[in-house]
Amino acid sequence: MNRRRVLVSLSTCVLALAALSIVAAGCAISAEPPAPQWEKVTSGRISGNQTTKQYLGTFYLVSEARLAWDLSGPSDARAEFELLATRSVDATATEGRGASVRSWKENFAPLDDDALSIGVPEPGEYAVTLSQRLRPSKGSGYSGTFTLYTRVLD
Question: Of the candidates 139, 56, 60, which has an alpha carbon nearest to the alpha carbon of residue 103?
Fold first, then answer.
C-alpha cells in the first residue's frame, strides 16, 4: 500500500509538471511583440484656402514617419495630400519616399492618427514636406491641425 501511495504521488507530480510546462509554453507563444514607439517631432496647421506645400523640417528618421491630423472641410472638397521625405545622397542626387491620399477616395479620414505613413530606405537626415493640392474647379480643401511622429527603435 505504501508503494501504491508513492506511485500515485509521483504520477500526480508528473502530471502537475506537464500541465505547468504546457501553460508556460502557451504564455510564451501568445506574447505579442511590444507596440512601436513613436516620438512627436513637430506639429502645425494646414489651410484649405489654396494649394500649399509646407516644409515641416529636417529630422533624423530611423525607419519611418507618420502623420496624424484633425481636419475639417466642405463635404465636396477635393484635395490630395502628400507626405514626402527626401535626403541628399551626394552632391548631385537625392532620394526619398512619399505617401499620398485623396479626399474623395474610400481610405480618407479627416480625423486619423495614421493618416499618412512613409518608410525610409535607410536611417538618416530627411527633409519632410506636407502638401495639399486642390482640384482647380472644386474651391477650398481641408483646414486643421497635424502632428508628425517618427518611429523610435529600441
Answer: 139
The pLDDT tens digits for 77-136 are 899 999 999 998 887 888 889 999 999 998 899 999 999 999 998 899 999 999 999 987
Could you tell me the three cell numbers for 116?
A: 499618412
Structure pTM? 0.75
Q: Give the whole-angstrom CA distance, residue 36 versus residue 23.
A: 27
Nearest to 75 by CA among 141, 143, 147: 141
Contact yes or no for 80/101 (Cβ under 8 A):
yes
Note whether 52 and 132 are within 8 A (CB).
yes
- What secondary structure letter does DSSP report for 33? P
Domain 37-152 architecture: Sandwich (2.60)
Q: How many CB atoms lie within 10 A of CB 55?
A: 9
